[in-house]
Amino acid sequence: MSDVFILGIESSCDETAAAVVRSGEQIISSAVFSQIPTHQPYGGVVPELASREHLRAIVPIVREALDHAGRTYDSVDAIAVTKGPGLAGSLLVGVSYAKALAFALDKPLIAVNHLEGHIHAVLLEERQRGNHHLQFPLMTLVVSGGHTHLYLARKNGEGWSYENIGHTRDDAAGEAFDKVAKLLALGYPGGPIIDKAAKVGDPYAVKFPPAQIKHRNRGDKGPAPERPHFDFSYSGIKTAVLRYVETHGMQAGIDQRRQALAALGKPTSEQVISHCDRQTLDLVASFQRAIVDDLVGKTLAATREYDIATLFISGGVAANSELRSTFQQRAAQEGLPVYFPSRPLSTDNAAMIAAAAYPKWLAKDFAGADLSAEASLPLR
Ligand code: KG4
Ligand code: ZN
Q1: Cβ within 8 Å of residue 11, ≥6 positions away
Q2: In a domain, 371, yes or no
Q3: Do 314 and 229 share a structural domain?
Q4: d(C-alpha 241, C-alpha 227), whole Å
Q5: Domain count, the chain
C-alpha cells in the first residue's frame, strides 16, 4: 500500500490546528495556534471570540502545516476535519474551510469525531514507535475541558466502532480544574497551573467527600443500560472548594492575588505560585488528588468489569503529571498496560484528526458536500 498523506484540520474549541500525517502512523507536521491569550482575561473560552480567532488563524495554520511537511495543497491525498462535538461556531469555521478546500482541489473529504481523534492520538504515537500490536478489549478514558468519557474501542475490519460506558453527569474534569483556578485567581487554563502548584502543596490537607451518583440524569431517555455504567461528576467538588474558601476566610487573599497578578500582565506559573499561601497550595493539591483518585478509581473499576486488556488515557487532562503517575502505578499493580499521548498530543491538535481519518480513507468513508458541523455529535 502506497503512502497516504492526509491534511487534518481541527477547530472544535480554542485551538486552530492543522497537520499532515502519513498513513495514520507518522506525523509529518503539526501546527497549533492556541487562543489561550484571547480567553485568559475571561477565565474561560468565550465562544464568539473563539469563532473570530479561528477565522483569522485557519488559512495561515493550514499553510504552516503544509510548509513544514514540504507539501502543497495538491500533494495531499485527502482533507480531514473535525465535525463535532464542540462549539458550533468554531466547528463551522473548520468544516466550511475543509469543504471549500476539498471541492477546489477535488480531493476526498473525511469527517472525524473529535473524541475519536483523542483516541487515535494514542494509536498514532504507538504506531510511530513501532507498536502495531495492541491487545483487545481496549478501553479509553477521554478526559478534557469538555469531556470525561469512557469508551470501549473495537476494530471492525479497517474501521473502528466505539461504545460509551461512562460519562460525566455535569462538569468535565478539565472544566473543574479551570473553574477552581478561576475561583482561586490562579489564571486560565487551570489544569497546567494547578498541576504545578499541587506539587508544593499537601494533597491530604483537605478531605473532599467522594462524588455520589445515585440517580440517572433526569434528561436520560430510554431504559437503563444493560451493561454497567461508570459515570463521573465534578460539579460537587468545585462547590466544596468554594465552601472551603468561604468558611476559611480566604477571599481577601484571593482578591489580593488577583490584583497582584493582573499588575504583572502575563505572570509565569512560578510567579503565580509565589503569590499563593500554604493554605491555597494545600487546597489545590487536595483538589487535584481527589479528582485523580476518582478518575483512576472509576476507570480501573470499569477495566475490571469489562475485562480490559489495554487502557488509553487521552485529552487535555491526560497531560496532568499526577494523573499519569497514579494511573501508571495502579495499572501496573493490576498488570494492565496503560498508554498516554505525549503532552503536545494530549491537548487539542490536528494530527489526531488526520490519524483518525486514515481508517476512513481505507474504508472509502468520505463525507459529501452536505457535511455540516454537529455541536453534540455522539461517538459510536
Ligand atoms: O483536550 P483539550 O485541549 O480541549 C478539550 O477538548 O477540552 O483540553 C483542555 C483542558 C483544559 O480544561 C485544561 O485545563 C486541561 O485540559 N489541562 C490539564 C492539564 N493541561 C491541560 N488539566 C490538568 N492538568 C494538566 N497538566
Ligand atoms: Zn479535545
Answers
A1: 17, 54, 58, 82, 86, 90, 91, 93, 94
A2: no
A3: yes
A4: 34
A5: 2
In-domain check, residue 369: no
Q: How far is the CA of 145 from the centre of ligand 1 (A)?
A: 5
Judged against a pLDDT cut of 80, whether residue 198 lies above it is answered with yes
Instruction: Decide if 375 is inside a domain.
Output: no
Q: Reading across the β-sheet that carries 78-84, which strands appear in turn?
A: 26-34, 15-22, 5-10, 78-84, 109-113
Q: What is the pTM of this model?
A: 0.94
Least trusted range by pLDDT, from 11-20, 204-213, 224-233, 327-336 = 224-233
Q: In what order do the strands lie in the sheet with 148-156?
A: 159-167, 148-156, 138-143, 310-314, 338-339
What residues contact 225, with CB distance under 8 A and at least 6 apart?
Answer: 165
**Which residues form the domain of 352?**
5-133+345-362
Distance CA 284, CA 326 (A): 17
The closest-lying atom of ligand 1 relative to the alpha carbon of residue 190 is: 14
Q: Which ligand is nearest to the CA of 113?
A: 2
Whole-angstrom distance, CA of residue 288 vs CA of residue 294: 10
- Residues 195, 314, single domain; the answer is yes
Atom of ligand 1 nearest to the CA of 347: 3
What is the spatial distance between Cα 71 and Cα 82, in angstroms, rounded to a whole number?
21
Q: Is residue 380 part of a domain?
A: no
